[in-house]
Structure formats: structure tokens, C-alpha cells
Amino acid sequence: MSEQANLHPERKPNRLVKENSPYLRQHAYNPVDWYPWGPEALEVARAENKPILLSIGYSACHWCHVMERESFEDEAIARLINENFVPIKVDREERPDLDQIYMDAVQMLTGHGGWPLTVFLTPDCKPFFGGTYFPPEDRRGMIGFPRVLKAIADAYHNRQPDVQQNVERLTQAIAALGNYKVQDGEMKRGLALAGAKALARSYDWVNGGIGRAPKFPNAFAFSLFLRVYVAEREPSFAEMVRDTLLKMARGGIYDQLGGGFHRYSVDERWLVPHFEKMLYDNALLARLYLEAGCALNEPEFIRIGRETLDYVIREMSSEEGGFFSSQDADSEGEEGRFFLWTPSDLLSVLGPELTPLVMRFFDVTEEGNFEGRNVLHRTIDPADAARLFNKSPEEFNLSLEAARRLLFQAREGRVKPGRDEKIIAAWNAMMISAFAQGYRTLGDERFLRSATRAVEFVRTRLWDGKSLRRVYKDGVARFNAYVEDYALMVSALIDLYEASMEREYLGFARELAEVLIQRFVDRENGGFFFTSDDHEQLITRVKSAFDGSTPSGNSAAAMALLRLYWYAHDERYMSEAEKTLRLFAPFMEKQPFAFSHMLEAVDLFERGATEVVIVAEANDRQKREWLNCLGQLYVPNRAIITVEPHSNADPLMPAIVAGKKQVGGRITAFVCREHTCSAPITSLEEFKATLQAV
């Protein structure tokens, strides 16, 4: 039974009680007569000629919970909604197609967006007014929700010409957003480097990161910087990556006890986070830290990557193999309560000897840094702290680790934030990629097991041999998968192949790529639609182009097909990827911040892949040593192929493998660029040196 049911045992549940989404079920005992999105709600709106109140949010959204408590739990506001509207609740993580369309509408109306998303629609689902969070009464310049509801109801019934004018203007503008046209001529060379340089102009040289508060991790921007640094050897890009990743790892945005990253920082210094933890942030950041650790020779980054993956195994992994979506910011009705500490808390757990050490290292004060309590963060290096406490570095680190263990164990006894146990295809794909990278970098078998179990989960629970499903929960897979689900899963399967060298994963990747090309491609203009050609018909069929906290469908598709091309050499993959990049090239030039992952795909398109062929017997123990060496180097544009000395031709392997033989019966590698391969390499030292030179 939901928390609302416990608070209001006299209330009957609304229709959301039958939904699987934890976010929708959180609203099942609201006095609002919620419908889920579907034919029933839309038919009622048409039959009764009522406007639709569409409310979109997600389980870990703090302000969604606030608006629920203030407005959707209020009997008077609920009565106003029920009498004048058909109220529909949508979980944006289940239905990003709806979220994309109606977020675009609100951004056009107000100049900004966010969640909760509050949109008013005609019975045929066309938007005419909207916003985000509305307070329950007029407050600090914001109009109260009851006043908004009354004004919208009056306008709909008494000022139809005004409503219709808004409808037509917004509907046309939303449709135009996806009406991209490929430009004539070749794509400008050096676009990835130019985009990275433009992004760098917004770098915060004081605090790290891009722009000012609130500050998001922007994993793709720094992944792009890392690529450019390695290719161009411009030290400023390495400095921006190193500085930002260090400041994030030492800030409050990183969970100093349990590992893993919170959603974003409300300040410029990475100190106070919005405390929710999202699977996709931790997938992208774990991978970025591991890659940056290899590229920049930073052991601390490798440690942060490992701790983040450990957090996901501990907190976000289902028994069936998939990964859960998120953890809330709130617990016991308070934002961040689970993660906060006072000096007296520390003393009760650590005693008088360890408490001063921890207070200094994690900057814990009586005043606190968040509502009288403390977000743990680091302002001093361990070596400096050791000197302050007259300890050797080894003694200090042992004391610190003992204190961390004690604090973590004590924290485990607190009421944990709620967890959204939906398993989402695209987010699981990003996490599979992160675990594959974790295994390649660290050789930890747990990480390989997590990745392979998750792929098996996808294959048996979300894939029916013809189509993917978007969401799984409580034994039920629902909703057509979107372009991002297919594309990111293709890349995840390539990553898992590169970690395991099991070719079945390339075969599955090609199956999904076929669906991607057959059901999502815009054959007239290029690029990929958000939804498949057999999806529910909405007011428009959009193309997602802008990279945010997750990659857009078009960025993910371009990257996936380019990567797969270097294994399969199927010209369709290269052709559709190139069309996509050309389609958005003018926008990448003007707005590189919105296309940081697509610029990574441009980098691969412009430079091509480094193809690494390793010829070794299947049971040669040295082969894993060579693969581990490769995994500990940063080679972003790569294709890795292992073949046995006397194997028959494999249709899944590219032509460059042909003729590659062992020298003297020893494991032999070839490093190939632009159809030219190195001489045979038979020593591990030479292999490493050749890769570093490339």
C-alpha cells in the first residue's frame, strides 16, 4: 500500500493504483481523479468537452513531490481540477515521447522547462497553455495554482478564439522543430574540434564545470574534451577535464560514503546537491572517470569509477539482472535527510578519537552547509590532513577508511530514500557500457558479470525477437521502445563484446540496428524519429536532437551505427550515420553545447577507427593480458577483433582481418589505421607503445 493510502485510509484509490510506475502509484490516493495516458482519458475529454490537465514528472523529482503535497493532496484544489478538467498523470521515464512534445510546447510558451511539467490540452491533445511548478497560492511573484486552473477553465469555455490561436501557433511550431533539412555540400571538417573549443569558452576556471549554478555534470562535454585532448594534444582540454572531475569527486555532489553521484549541484562549487541519484548519471560518470583515469594517469579517477560501479551493484541492481532507475532526494519527508550529518552524529558513531579527523577532512561544522546540517565534502588533501593530525599518510588513510566504514554502516540504519524500481532499456544500456568499461579497465569479474546479466535480462524480458520494450517492472514489460533505447543498446552490446570478446553480442547488436534502420529512419530527410513507425499516433512525430543529461536519439543512433560499421562494414550504417550528422551539422556549429555527444560521433566520423586485431589461440592465457593492456589505455575510436590462427572466415568480422597470421606461433597483434596496418607485433611492450603512438 502506498504512503498516501496510509495517510488517508478513508480515500478510495484512483485509476493510477493499477499502474506499474512507482511515480504514478505515488498519486494513486490523491483526491484528484487521475487517469493514466490512454484511450479512456482521451475519450472522456472528447465526450465531455473538457480540457486536459496533463501533469508529467518522475519518481525522484523533488519539486514533483512538493507540488503533490501542496496541490494534488489538497481537497479544494482537487475538486477544482476534477470539475473542470480531465486530469492525466504521466511518468516521463515511461513516456519520453509525450514529455518531449509537451516540454517543447512549454518552453515555447515560457522560455524555460522542467518538472513537474504542467500542460493544458484540448481534447484532441493539442497544447494551449502550460508551465512547470505552480504553488498552491500566489507566492513570490508566482501565480497560485487555483488561479491558474480557474483562468484556464474560463478561457477554454468562454474565449475559444484565443485558445484556438494558441493551439494553432504551438502545434505548427512543435511540428517545425522536427522539420530539419539536409544541407547541400560536404560537412565542414574539424567540426568536433571547433565545437569543443566553443564549449571551452563557457568553462568555469574557478570551480570547474560548464557555466554557473545550478551546475550539472555535463558528462558528454568532458568526454568530448578528453577525445580532443588525446587527438590534438592541447593541454587545456586535459586541464579542464582533470580540474572538473577532481572538484566533483571531492564535492557534495559525490556521495563520499556510499559512492555514486547525485543529480546536480545547486551551487557553483559542487557542494550542495539535489540529492536524487539517477542511474544514467552514474552510468555516464563512472565511464568518464574510468576513461579519464586512463587518459590522464589519475588513480583517484579510477577509484571513483570503481566506487560508483560498486554503488550500482549494491543499491541499483535487481535480482533479475537489470538496473533500477533512481533513488529519491527525500526521505522521511525531508530533502537529503539520509545523507546529512552533524558533529554530534559523528561523535555518537566514531567516538572522540576519529571525530576530529573526519570533521576536518569532510569539513563538518556546527553551523552546517545545508539547513543546519552538513553535506560531506573534501577541502583538504589526505597528505595535508595527515600532517595536521601528526600521522603518516598510511596511518591517516587507515583511520579515514575505518571512519568511512563506521559512518556508512550507521547510515544504513537510517530510513533510505525511495527507489524507483522501473528498469528502463536506454538507461540499462548506458549502465551495461559502464560495467563493460569497468571490466576492461580494472579486470574485476563482478563488473563483467553485471554487464552480461543485464544483457541477458534485456534479451529475455525486453526483446521478443522483433521489438524492444521500454520499461519493465513487476514481471511486466510495457511500451514500445524509442530510438534511444535501440541505439544505446547497440552501443552497449559493442562495449560488452569489446570487454568479453564474445561475438554473439555483435550479432544481437546487428539485429537491433536492423530495427533501428527499418522503423525509425526518416527516409526523406535523414535522421531518426523519436518513435517507431508502428507507434501510437501523437500530434507530431518528433526527432530528438539535443543532448541533455542523456544523449538524444539521433546522437546515440549516429554513434551506434558508426561504431557498428567498423565491425560489420555494412555501408548502410555509415550512410545513415552520415546523413544524421549532416542533417544537424548547422545546428552543431551554432549550438555545440546542445550537441556534445553528437560531436563525439562527428569525431569518430572524421578520424575513423583504430582497428586492433589480435591473433591468438582461444585458450591462450596471454590474450587476456593483452586485452587488459588495451583496456587500460584510452583509445576512444576503436574496433577490437580477436581471431584464432586457423579459424575460418567469419561473416561478422571485417575484411581487415583477412590474412592476419601469428608470427612464430606467438600471440600477434596488428594496429590498423585508414586501411594500413602495422607490422606484426609480438611483444606486449611494443603493442602498448604502438597504441599510445596512434
Notes on the protein architecture:
- By secondary structure, the chain is of the alpha+beta class.
- It folds into four domains: 175 residues, Glutaredoxin, CATH 3.40.30.10; 329 residues, Glycosyltransferase, CATH 1.50.10; 80 residues, no CATH class; 84 residues, 3-Layer(aba) Sandwich (Glutaredoxin).
- The chain is 50% helix and 11% strand.
- It contains 25 helices and 21 strands.
- Strands 1-3-2-4-5 form a five-stranded mixed β-sheet, sandwiched between helices.
- Helix 5 runs parallel beside helix 7 and helix 21 runs antiparallel to helix 22.
The termini sit apart by 59 Å
Low-confidence stretches: none
How do the strands line up in the largest sheet? 1-3-2-4-5
Relative strand content:
5-15%
How is this structure best summarized?
This protein is an alpha+beta fold and 694 residues long. The protein is globular, with a radius of gyration of 26 Å.
Features:
five-stranded mixed β-sheet, 4 domains, 694 residues, Glutaredoxin, alpha+beta, Glycosyltransferase
